[in-house]
Amino acid sequence: MTPSSMKYPLLAAALFAATGASAAAAFKLPQFETVKLPNGLTVLLMERHEVPLVAVRAVVKAGAVDDGSRAGLANLTGDAILLGSEKHSKAAIDEAFDFRGAMLAGGSGTEQTTVQANFAKADTDTLLPLFAEIVQQPGFDAAELDKLRTRKVSGLKQAKESPRQVAGLYYRSMLFGDAPYANPPVGTVGTLSALKQADVREFHRTHFRPDNAAIVVVGDFDPAAMRQKIEALFGQWRAAGAAPQRADYGRPQAGTARVWLVDKPDAIETTFTIGGAGIARNDPDYVPLQVVNTVLGGRFTSWLNDELRVNSGLTYGANSGFAPMAQAGTFAISSFTALPKTEAALDLALKTYDRLWSRGIDQATLDSAKAYVKGQFPPRFETGEQLASLLGDMFALGVGRDQIDNFTRDVDGLTPAKAKQLVDRHFPRKNLQMLLIGKASDIKPIAAKYGEVTELEIAADGFRPVK
Question: Where is the signal peptide (predicted)?
Fold first, then answer.
């Protein structure tokens, strides 16, 4: 259950009645209006009158790919936006939202930074102006920013104690090398500690501009009136110079089989990730690939979980999945096992993965996966908050509504023969990339059989080999 559905159970119930399981076969993205303001700001408006709530989201096309050598800058900026505006302190804004039972949040990832708010329709005229303030004129209070940065640095240090928390960062770095997609969104202890208030202000000034952003509003409102509100609040937003250009953020490097062995001397488990190149978020095969991956490692009854957990007891869980971004993506099998069972778990994971080619997916298994995916998909877009998030992702990652509207068609049209074509086209088979985090002195002899080994120290700052 999502945070908004826990907070507003009637919203989840009402929207599920409209788009729930009984209507899964006919799921379509609700209609929405796209408006472009004279200053270049994109505005997406979706009416949903089931309950008197409004979800608003500001989406900026900026993230870790724009950090350059200052890893963690976008992430720090995204969180620091919530520290207050030039006119109102953080305490005043928090009080305004909390008093009305509203939600205000923000953050930054690989390619986008967002600010989001959920509130009652009756509070729109009070809270929407405050939302507009922090998006356009954040205060970046120096004392609050210092405390935020200190918390983030402490969190990074703690994360290295839990390999499963950082495995994805090492894996992304392994696949993308020095390209922008390799930048860890959370930064490193060194880069994050060096960031100053001036860096945050500069990042906001450079990337937070109307021609690089969208305002998404989903909920109970009159479209004409909401357009007027948005134009009044955001129409005077200006930016100097040309908008940042979307660069080439990199492609996965998988020319040879490689192993990154990250040494954690006190580890009693081996955390592992195996895979290679994946797909972009707007790939036309995105939806049917979710079905195929469901069979392999996308649900509790998947092949990987059955073999590594249920049948062999080598782990408490195993999964696989595609991590798509705007220009490229990765595919990964992920699990962990007791240190003495490392080789057995790796070999079984690889053997199970090879079933995609050696045995393929039969009709009964495929039908089960199709039913599962069709049952899971519509409930992901029940609430206004979820729909606003979807529209924001579509804007930031270049996804058309056809991918959503054709969901049922693409799932129902999948056959064993088409599934085989998808496997051959998108699942990496040769030159697999492997990340191992554990006690290197015990794992190194095993690692060498899977590819060229590069050793790293988990205590070292960052998520790539020290040069």
Answer: 1-23
